[in-house]
Fold:
Amino acid sequence: MGIRIGTSGWRYPEWRCDFYPRGLQQRLELQFLSRRLDTVEINGSFFGLRKPTDYKSWFERTPDDFVFAVKGHREITHIKRLRDVREDVSDFFASGVLDLGRKLGPILWQLPPTLPWRPERLAAFLELLPGPPVRHALEIRHPGWDNPDLVGQLTSAGVSLVVAESGGRWPEPTSLTTDFVYVRLHGDQEPYVSAYSDAALDRWAARIREWSVDRDVFVYLDNTMRGAAPHDAVALASRLN
Structure:
């Protein structure tokens, strides 16, 4: 099965003159990253609906075998908290997401840490999601969601429960609920900040190899704030090539 390693987003001031060469124009940063890694999360789609021209541009600027994960709009997950979101889900997918075609990876739905366990609300939301070939992954952040009923619900729906590491700040579930694994590495000490040690990367590489025997695996480094994410992603990918 396939393994893809990338980062959560690609436009960060801290990456310039570090991961990105000095003098590289900002519009060329995605091209640069896509020649070092084979996937990335689109984070801008969380903060606001993008335009079809954005997705078309990203598609055209990356290699044929590149894949984008797309983060679901916060209007759905954080503002309306999965309630009465039929029109919002429709608008999200109409904004150009599906135009990525063969380069479309999983859709990431990140829930807020203030949303308690709501199984009925989740069930209604899952029914709104387009089915295969579109894949979906759910990241939980309230401890009430870390329970066997959620695992069963996502398994039945064919939705991946995100395997996340956050230094214990949020739940870190490990249950595999579908035919692919979606991993978000926020930092094993301080979320968004901590760089991964060689030993930590070795530990994750071993887990990823085990999962990849019978599943596709998507891994995104989200320790972006001090510029560690792209370096850790390249280092992790080198262990798995």
Observations:
- The first helix runs from residue 29 to 34.
- Strands lie at 3-8, 39-42, 67-71, 104-110, 136-139, 160-161, 163-165, 180-185, 216-221.
- The mean pLDDT is 97.
